[in-house]
Amino acid sequence: MLDPLQSRRSRSKHGLALGLVLLLGIVVLVIGMSMIAISGGLLTSSVDSKQKIKSRMAAESQANMQMAAAVEQATLVFGGEISLPGTPMSDLPTGDGSKASAEIEPIGVNGGILPQERITSGGFKGMMGLKVAFKVHSLGVAPGGAKTAIDAEVKMYQVPIFQFGVFYEGNLEICPGQTMIVQGPVHTNSSAFFRSPGSSGSEVGFQGPITASGSIFHWTMGSGLLWYRLIPEESAVYSLAFPTLRYDMTEMKTFPAFRGEANVRWGVERLNMPIAGATPRSILLPSSPLDPPALNRQKFDTRIGKNPGANRWVNGVTPRPAWITGPKVFFDRRERAWVKFWDFSVKDITSSDSIFYLADTTAMMADRGNAKKRVINAFRIINAAKLPRNMTIATPNPVYLLGDFNAPDPTSTCGPAGVANPITAERYCNALIASDAFTLVSSNWQANDFAHKAMQGTLERDSADVHWTQFKGMGGADSLFEMEPVNGSAGVGPARTAVINAAIMTGNKPSIPAALPPRNYSNGVFENLYEGGWHNTIRFLENLDKDTVRFKGSFVCMWSAASPGLDTGAGKVIRPGAGGYYFPPVRLWSFDPRFTSLANMPPATPFLTTPPTYSFSELR
Predict the structure, then answer these.
(1) What is the distance between the alpha carbons of residues 375 and 399, in angstroms, rounded to a whole number?
(2) CA distance 176 to 182
(3) In sequence order, what are the beta bridge partners of 502?
(4) Least confident of 254-268, 381-395, 492-506
(5) From CA 327, how far away is CA 397, in angstroms rounded?
(6) Model confidence pLDDT, tens digit, residues 525-556
(7) Best CA proximity match to 552, nearest among 587, 509, 583
(8) Which of the two residues, 588 and 580, has the higher pLDDT score?
(9) How many Cβ atoms from other residues are within 10 Å of residue 423's Cβ?
(10) pLDDT confidence of 323, banded at 50, 70, 90?
(11) Among 2, 173, 189, 432, who pairs with 503 as Cys (CB 3.0-4.6 Å)?
């Protein structure tokens, strides 16, 4: 279910509301000047006409101000009651004695709940949104007594973000080394970069629709194939399979439309979160009295329900619950840093709430040992193959997930809303993991011993253990914990499949602009500087070449990971083996169609907003 919260009636003039007030003020002036021009000689010959125009402008001014207030109010409400008081007849600050009043009427609200409606135009076309609509009944009175009544309507939609299969704030890069079919709507507020693999029979395909606020660059390698569905409901595709490279889609004059629909579009409007000008990553941070109301409405820390003491833990600020243990440490070779992590055991939680907020902002010495390495604070999610209820886990720290998350469970009572007796494959909860960065480690994570005798037995040490504070590494400064955990082809157990059913909201490290078109058209330069892209935003640290990762949900990347020093450049992520960090698994990633229903959004789902639309009608 959606997560309705109590509405706040803020009158602040910052952010979106201030911009709208200024914009609407300009609109009022333009309308007024247009009316004066249309009236022509009437202004010089008829006092009544002058009075009538003044009364109309007074009514429109009041209506515009109230609509701006309504839009501001709408950014503070998600699925809850929404109301706005009218204004009594009062003098306007025009200095000519004009007066105006207004009454505000919410439209379509049933029992205080916003209606759901399918959006029929714009960047969210086809998606479901919560319609926020007001009618403003405004009366303007001129100094001479002339009156004008105007009805004005303002409408906008709040759109839960997990209706997208993939949503990026920055550049979206999808350039895997193996076949990958991307499902669900795809959008980036920047540019998109798509490359097919070079091996025979390999392909990258998009079901669509695909939209980019910037450009779309794409190219093929070798005998690889890159294709786009003409429209999602049809089998017809548009394919790129050229013997030479082809890059900028904006140069293609005839990218085909099908039945009047363009399934791939670039240069479209940005799709934004209403957070009063803050950066999207701000919604992960602990709440602050300085937060503007619109940002406060989307912060996970402020949406945790009625018992914040039971499911909110900020290290050093609030008591630690029993289901969080640690800390332990290990060396993450991909980060080239020690990771101090706390285990969050889902099966051991005692709170009945559904939103869990965790933060560790305490600093450890960057050099706890002789290796001169920094320390990253993180959380590891364990025992989460089965969830007790629909659940959101949010933290400003990196997350390491051990094993499965929210796998199908024949005994689960969650299931998708509106489906009676769902099959076992659909019996899992609506879930979200929101974090700075996201790393998946397999159930074999603890299976390997270190060659160094002092460290044999486990990858993980208690944070007070002298070995990790003194360990210098083997064979060089970057070979700490040289023996990473192994899996699959290295002979530790059979091939495995990791299952994740959830929305994931996290960060990445984008490629530098010098690696990408239009600054660079050399595939060799791209290969050397490429940072990994969307398909590597779920990070790995193991030899997984016999394994499969089956992810089903929605993937949102709204920020660059704050954890510094990710050593992912110069081919080091995508080159496995002795010089790399992992062998990649088979990635079977898909969009979860349950997220097309707003009733299946995870708790505290962030939302985007459509631009408001306005209409006016004069009554008398």
Answers:
(1) 14
(2) 11
(3) 553
(4) 254-268
(5) 14
(6) 888 888 778 988 998 877 787 889 999 999 99
(7) 587
(8) 588
(9) 10
(10) very high
(11) 432
pTM of the shown model: 0.83
432 bridge partner residues: 392, 503
DSSP 200-246: TT-EEEE-S-EEESS-EEEE--TT-EEEEESSTTSS-EEEE--SS--
Q: Which amino acid is present at 595?
A: F
Closest CA to 229 of 200, 254, 250, 258: 258
Q: What is the pLDDT of residues 43-60, one digit of tens each?
A: 444 567 888 898 999 999
User: How far is 425 from 548, CA to CA, in rounded Å?
Assistant: 17
Tokens of 18: 């201030």
DSSP 8-class letter at 85: -
The count of residues in the chain is 620
Q: Residue 584 and residue 506: Cα distance in Å, rounded?
A: 20
Could you tell me how far CA 11 lies from the centroid of its own chain?
27
> What does the block give as tokens for 30?
């333009």
Q: Do residues 411 and 430 make contact, with C-beta atoms less than 8 angstroms apart?
A: no
List the beta strands (DSSP E) in 76-122: 87-91, 99-106, 116-118
Please report which confidence band the pLDDT of residue 480 belongs to, taking 50, 70 and 90 as the band edges. Answer: very low
Per-residue pLDDT of 375-395, as tens digits, reads 789 999 999 999 999 999 999
Report, in this order, helix, strand and coil percent for the chain, each rounded to 5: 20, 30, 50
- Residue 379's identity, in one-letter code, is F
Structure tokens at 214: 């910037």
Amino acid at 40: G
Per DSSP, helices labelled H in 293-342 are: 293-296, 308-311
Rounded Cα distance between 18 and 76, Å, is 15
Which among 456, 612, 519, 618 is positioned nearest to 133, based on CA atoms? 612
Sketch the domain layout of the chain as residue ranges.
Answer: 15-162+607-618, 166-251+258-266, 304-600
